[in-house]
Amino acid sequence: MTEYPRVVVNLEKIRDNVKFLTKKCYESQIDVVGVTKVFSGSLEMAKVLVEGGVKYLGDSRVKNLKKYKNLDVPKVMIRLPMRSQIKEVIKHVDISLNSEISTIALLNEEAGKQGKVHKIILMIELGDLREGVLPEDVECYMDQLNSMKNIKLEGIGVNLTCYGGIIPSFENLEKLEIISNLIEGKYNLKLNIISGGNSSSLDLLWNNNMPPKINNLRLGESLIFGRETAYGKDLEGCFHDSVKLEVEIIELKEKKSYPVGEIGVNAFGEKPVFIDRGKRKRAILAIGKQDVDHSNLETMDEKLIILGSSSDHLVVDVTDSKIKYKVGDIVGFKLNYGSLLQLTTSPYVKKTW
Ligand SMILES: *Cc1c(COP(=O)(O)O)cnc(C)c1O
């Protein structure tokens, strides 16, 4: 028996996307870190990214990177290390993104103990207000880094369009170039990596507007959905339908669309709002908020209306569809980044490659 709900992944389409996008990046002398966080550390997925041509694998969780130890590319930790995991980071991670000197000092100390030199990318804050050292503090950081024998500054990087929604531009990425020139000149060293962001930086590449010194991007969403994320545009030459969700109908009845009785709060303490459409045919599907936020789902059958969900139930209005749905039928959904991230994290959702 097939298990439901399940996320169906077309690895061939993702492999094609990875080949296409890494080639496009390499033509501009840009290496790609393939970011796997949206697949909860799946080894199958990581292999596809490496086969497709990424030069590094990146993830925010050490637990995931650990699984890739037999894949022959450097592992990049793309979230700042926690102080409570320094040992694990030195053991399983080749390059980590950093912005706190006290954490880097601990990495230095632990790397010494393990007889290693740990590489870091120093993150620079350029407007998005998530991680990063303020540009005016970079020199102070450099003075301190210089005395750390077991840390190698592999490069610098920026993250945009994640927290503040700031769109990468020639101007803000050029600041990264300027800072790299300053570091290389003043400290007489060569930075191997100038990492210009994530899938939201692809639009600059497409418009030949990427500052020339940017030689690295960390890509996740674009590899899977074939989409840049500054404006949400589908990239020509990529597949956009490499993943879908399938869920089973467990009840199908004609019911009123407006609840009967006094309306209080739902199971999540919210006062629900209803549209009275009269009597409608309603399907209950076996998936719920524990697995996914329904506002990030879209039905493949455009005539269906997602009404709402509770912990384990999703209610869908099927009245207008040409398809005569019945109990036991499977309903398909398109996914976005948010729903894919949640679904792959739920142990109750089967993943099919
Ligand atoms: C998630 C993440 C990425 C990848 O972002 P996408 O939008 O999926 O390409 C890159 N860098 C960092 C630091 C991240 O957290």
Structural descriptors:
single chain, alpha/beta, TIM Barrel, Lyase, Ornithine Decarboxylase, Chain A, domain 1, 2 domains, eight-stranded mixed sheet, eight-stranded parallel sheet, 16 strands, 23% strand, binds pyridoxal-5'-phosphate, PLP-binding_barrel, pyridoxal phosphate, Alanine/ornithine racemase family PLP-dependent enzyme
Largest sheet: 8 strands, mixed
Are any ligands bound, and if so which? Answer: pyridoxal-5'-phosphate
The CATH topology of the largest domain is TIM Barrel
Oligomeric state, counting identical vs distinct chains: single chain
Q: What is the count of helical runs?
A: 10
User: Helicity level, as a percent range?
Assistant: 25-40%
Mean pLDDT, to the nearest integer, reads 95
Q: Tell me the name of the CATH homologous superfamily of the largest domain.
A: Alanine racemase
CATH class descriptor of the largest domain: Alpha Beta
User: Can you count the beta strands?
Assistant: 16
Q: What Rg do the Cα atoms give?
A: 23 Å
Q: What is the ordering of alpha helices and beta strands? A: EHEHEHEHEHEHEHEHEHEEEEEEHE
Please indicate the percent range of residues in DSSP E strands (runs of 2 or more).
15-25%
CATH architecture of the largest domain: Alpha-Beta Barrel
Shape: elongated
The total domain count is 2
Intertermini distance: 16 Å
> Helix/strand-derived class?
alpha/beta
Low-confidence stretches: none
